[in-house]
Each structure stands twice: as structure tokens, then as C-alpha cells.
Amino acid sequence: MMLQFQFNDRVALSSCNRPPLVEQIGYVPSDKIMLINIQGDSDILINGRYVNSGSFHVSSGKPIHAISKSMICAYIVTLDRDFFLEHITEGAKIKSLKGVFETFITPSHGSVLDFQKTVLQNFVDSPPGEVCQASTKRLMGSIQEIALSEADGVLRVLPPSTRAYIVDRSCELLFDNFSNEEFGVLEMCNYLKVSRRTLQYSFESVMGMSPSNYVRTVRLNVARKLMLLSPHDKIQGAALDAGFSHLGRFSKYYQDFFGELPSQTVGRVANRVPH
Q1: Domain of 208: which CATH number?
Q2: Position 118 in a domain
Q3: Alpha helices in the chain, H assignment, sequence order
Q4: pLDDT tens digit string along 54-79?
Q5: Is the pTM of this model over 0.70?
Q6: In this structure, is residue 133 part of a structural domain?
Q7: Going by DSSP bridges, is the β-strand pair 63-68/49-51 parallel, antiparallel, or unpaired?
């Protein structure tokens, strides 16, 4: 099965499942950059090199030859080369690569999960017609984080006090802006003048989770508290006040996190609280 999303002539994304021992052969034009992340139970052979599920293959102007011994799920992003370079900040090794190239990147586990969640929540699981510019913005932010992970060694020298400060200020910023759905990881980075990778590393080392997961956790808990305090009010109102404009997506996140639907939470509490 393959799902394809074409936002514009600069960004295309496909997600597919493939049975084992099926060869995939293709070619990446020189004016495009293709980023491939494959999930499977065993290593995957790409252009003569075995890579694991946490790795990304990035290339331009190169043929692609891939084969796996197990069932795989592949996420493939094809980007206009100029558009890609415009959105990758200085410091990423990949930005200096010229002409035909091929490279393999193994980012942190948190960055891999962030990429996969971004793809699933903003493209694969989104209702038809709701893939928009904001979806592409989130995707490019996740890709930039992956590209910057090649310079991960620089992050290891950040002292604990600096990481703690970055996390503390991020939490304060979120507290002041949690009802604004547009406020997220990119806005934190811009305000603090740090890269997404630095923010990611700081959160993972201090909080044990990615900044995007932290943002969602805070907003879900805010929504739950609002519903518990006012169970007779509309669920949509609590979702909007917590920074969720899409009720269906909010319900899915809420159920995944709390193990029940918002309506179940409200119904249980409403039965105990008089009108």
C-alpha cells in the first residue's frame, strides 16, 4: 500500500508498506533531494550498505537500489533542492554537499520518533484536504533537526546548567502561550535563538522527552483540567483553550495519552457534578 501527498512542486511525501525480498529501484533527479527512512525488523540494504531503522538515506542525482529481508514501512520525502537548502540552517554538514551526493544520517532516537510522528499526524492521519502550509513547515522543522544531528558532537559539550536554562525558559514560554496553537518548537527556538537540535538535546537530557512531546503533554493536561473543572461545558471549548483547533485530532491525542475519549472523561465527571 502506498500513500502519496503533493503539497506543491517543491515538497512531496509518500508512505508505503512493502513485503520482504522485494527490490526497489529508482532515481533521484539532480534538482531534487530525497530523504528515506525505512522501518523494519532487520537491517535494510540501500545502495550496497546495510542501514538500521533509525537511519536516514539522503541523496541527489543518484540511483536508488533497496532490498529488505523483512516487511518494511518506508517514509520518503522528495524536495526541490533549492527549497531544501533554503530551509536548512548553517551548521548542517549536508548543506555543504555539492552536485551529486549520497549520505547516511543516524540521528537520536527522539529525532526519529519526532519525524515519524510529524509524518503520521500531519500527512498520513490527516483528513483529505487538511495537508497545508503548516504541515509542510512542521515537516521541514523535523528534517532540519535530522540534518543538524550530524553535528551532534557539538551538543555534547553543552553544560548541564545551559541545558537546564533552555528547558526552564521553554517551559515558561509555553505556559504563556499554550492556548496559541501556532506556538510550538520552532517558536521556542526563534525566541531563545537556539537550533531545534539544541532544544531537542536539552529536553531529552533534562526531561527525558522531546520538546514536541512535552508541548503536547502540557496541552493535553490543560485540556483535561478544564474539562474536569467544567464538565458541562463543550469539549471543543476546552480543546481550543488548550491550543487544539482540530477536535478530531485532539480526541485522538487525548485517547492515546489518557486511555479514554474526552467525552468519557466529561461523562464520568458530569454524572457526579450537579448542574
Answers
A1: 1.10.10.60
A2: no
A3: 81-87, 109-119, 133-148, 152-155, 160-177, 185-192, 196-206, 211-229, 235-241, 247-258, 262-270
A4: 789 999 999 988 888 778 888 899 99
A5: no
A6: no
A7: unpaired
